[in-house]
Write a structure and sequence with these properties.
The chain is an alpha+beta fold and 167 residues long. The chain contains eight helices and four strands, in the order H-H-H-E-E-H-E-E-H-H-H-H.
């Protein structure tokens, strides 16, 4: 199936597919594992999107929140990192059925391929180099997008720690 999708993309068709992966870089490894040659894969690929759903803080019972030092440490943050953040948690109410969360929002990292990224994929370079090149090309990673959502008070540190990797 992977080979057919790549061949269709190489002949000018716009192909969308889903692959279970933790981030945009794991997708590359998945296709290699399925036997797709790096050159044909990189030639066919325009971009990769990795997404997660995060629960949103209930707007009916949300209150300002000062996280514990343990939560900050588990989040890879310090008190100084939180300057200007609007941290909130839901206390729990009838609207959110006592959970403090109501609704979900998608967060995503989007990596649009450029020539440098294609070359790195073809050469089989380590993820570290791909990550550096993607950052230079403007890719914002899931954790960064998730932290922005916490900064705006839309979700909690505990929630993003649950669905994204710290570090």
């Amino acid at each position: 199936t992977a080979q057919i999708a790549v061949q269709a993309a190489l002949t000018g068709h716009l192909v969308f597919t889903t692959v279970h992966a933790n981030n945009v870089f794991d997708v590359i490894g998945r296709f290699r594992h399925m036997g797709v040659e790096p050159y044909t894969f990189a030639s066919a690929l325009n971009g990769i999107v990795a997404q997660r759903l995060v629960r949103q803080v209930c707007t009916e019972c949300a209150v300002r929140h000062k996280p514990t030092l343990d939560l900050l440490s588990a989040s890879g943050l310090s008190r100084e990192d939180l300057a200007g953040w609007r941290l909130r948690v839901g206390r729990g109410c009838g609207r959110c059925r006592g959970t403090g969360y109501r609704g979900r929002r998608a967060i995503a990292e989007v990596m649009v391929l450029n020539d440098e990224l294609r070359e790195l994929i073809v050469r089989g370079e380590p993820v570290r180099l791909l990550r550096e090149a993607a950052t230079r090309a403007g890719t914002r990673f899931l954790r960064q997008v998730a932290l922005d959502s916490v900064r705006r008070g839309e979700t909690t540190l505990a929630e993003i720690n649950r669905v994204t990797f710290v570090g």
